[in-house]
Specification:
With 333 residues, the chain is mainly β. Helices cover 9% and strands 39% of the residues. It has helices at residues 3-11, 142-148, 243-248, 252-260; strands at 43-46, 56-58, 64-67, 72-76, 82-87, 92-97, 103-107, 111-115, 128-132, 153-159, 164-172, 175-180, 186-191, 196-201, 210-214, 219-224, 233-240, 272-278, 284-292, 298-304, 307-312, 317-322. Strands 1-22-21-20 form a 4-stranded antiparallel β-sheet, with no helix packed on it. β14 and β15 form a beta hairpin. α1 (3-11) packs parallel to α4 (252-260) and α2 runs antiparallel to α4. The longest helix is centred in the first third of the chain and has 9 residues, at 3-11. The chain is globular and about 60 Å long.
């Protein structure tokens, strides 16, 4: 260990322990990835209280459900009017609508919750797939996990009938959004820290096997949807790739130094909205972007009835834009 390395570790206040990795050069922003201003005109529905509607879901009646950093779960009607459904008294992040109309909430402080429209926790049969992003850091310190790059994230499966949870994949780089194939033959998990989406087979001869499904994405992936009727998986990109973060990747000591700098001078994401859609082969077929000042960072996306609904970790509103027309490739034709 050099004197510089020794000094950096001695002065570290964060507990980061980075490893060497080499980020792939980002793909060229041409063709389907060419910049556009589609998200610049996103219409916003402001939360009555709190902020940070990190994920969005759409219930069986077409109403948008989300949660804010004050613990409240909100439901918006088609006019953008909000009703409070519950308060987890934690930090709700992921949101899903169960088949019986109740809500599945992944809360960073309280775990996986099932909530009905009276705000009560309820049980339900049905398998739940969810992620544990980091074994080392909380949501407030998530940037340290990205700087460390040790891959402590996990993909888990919960059976509410038995209460048993089993491990589907581990060693993931900040495991984030989850998407299920329409035939439930595989599940996808976004690896925020390595700019990729991995696949775990649930059936067939490769059952339990994990592989990279979409590599070297143009941005930092966050939440994603399960497969739509048209065969698409929508993915929210928290930001475009950060050049400084990639440049620091091979140098653990410099990443320790970066972690201990004031947040304002650390590698920071560009605040510009971005969502992409991938077909059944993992190929990007849609890329919707916004410029600086657009609704961002986009951390959740959901398609319903001709609209894309967007969520954000830090914004004070959810947003929506018209969904693009379907290309034939999305249906595997």
């Amino acid at each position: 260990m050099t004197l510089f390395e020794s000094l950096a570790r001695k002065l570290d206040r964060t507990g980061v322990d980075p490893v060497v990795w080499h980020a792939p050069p980002p793909p060229s922003l041409t063709g389907v990835l060419a910049p556009n201003g589609v998200l610049d005109d996103a219409h916003r529905w402001t939360l009555p209280s709190g902020e940070g509607p990190e994920d969005v879901a759409v219930d069986h009646d077409g109403r948008v459900v989300t949660g804010g950093n004050d613990g409240r779960i909100w439901r918006f009607d088609s006019h953008g009017e909000a009703t409070e459904l519950a308060n987890t008294h934690g930090r709700p992040l992921g949101v899903e609508i169960l088949d019986d109309g109740r809500f599945l909430i992944c809360d960073a402080e309280r775990g996986v919750l099932r909530v009905d429209d009276k705000g009560q926790a309820v049980g339900r049969d049905g398998i739940v797939y969810f992620t544990d992003s980091s074994a080392h850091f909380t949501i407030a310190d998530h940037r340290y996990d990205l700087l460390e790059h040790r891959g402590t994230g996990r993909l888990l499966r919960l059976d509410p009938r038995t209460g048993e949870t089993d491990l589907l994949a581990e060693g993931l780089q900040f495991a984030n959004g989850v998407g299920l194939a329409s035939d439930e033959s595989f599940v996808l998990v976004a690896e925020t820290g390595s700019y990729q989406i991995s696949r775990v087979d649930l059936t067939g001869p490769s059952q339990g096997a994990a592989s990279v499904w979409a590599a070297n994405l143009p941005g930092i992936p966050d939440n994603m949807t399960s497969q739509t009727r048209d065969g698409l998986f929508w993915v929210a990109l928290y930001s475009p790739r950060m050049r400084l973060l990639d440049l620091l990747a091979p140098y653990p000591t410099l990443r320790i130094v970066a972690a201990n700098l004031p947040e304002v001078v650390q590698p920071n994401p560009e605040h510009a909205g971005w969502v992409i859609a991938l077909d059944h082969r993992g190929e990007i077929v849609h890329s919707l972007r916004g410029g600086k000042g657009s609704y961002s960072p986009v951390t959740g996306v959901r398609e319903h009835d001709g609209w894309l609904y967007l969520g954000s970790l830090t914004a004070d509103a959810v947003a929506r834009v018209p969904a693009p027309p379907r290309p034939d490739i999305a249906r595997g034709e």
